[in-house]
Amino acid sequence: MEILSERFPSFTMTEGAGYFRGNKEKTLLVHIAIEQPQEVVAAASLIREVLQQEGVGIGFRGHYFRATESDIPKLDP
Known about the structure:
Layout: H1 2-7, E1 12-20, E2 23-31, H2 37-50, E3 55-60, E4 63-68
Antiparallel strand pairs: 1-2, 3-4
């Protein structure tokens, strides 16, 4: 939450349960309304790095993207 609150004045977080490779894990869904979607990608990449995750998912305009160490999506406004 610290990473997000430093970058975005408003956002919504919802706790949930997700499944990764068949294993249930705690999940946070974050909803951010912003005109510069690449700022969301930058935040997702930092969260992935800090939490040592393989990837962080990003939903944008009905499509799913994944920020990984080797693949940082480019999202056009």
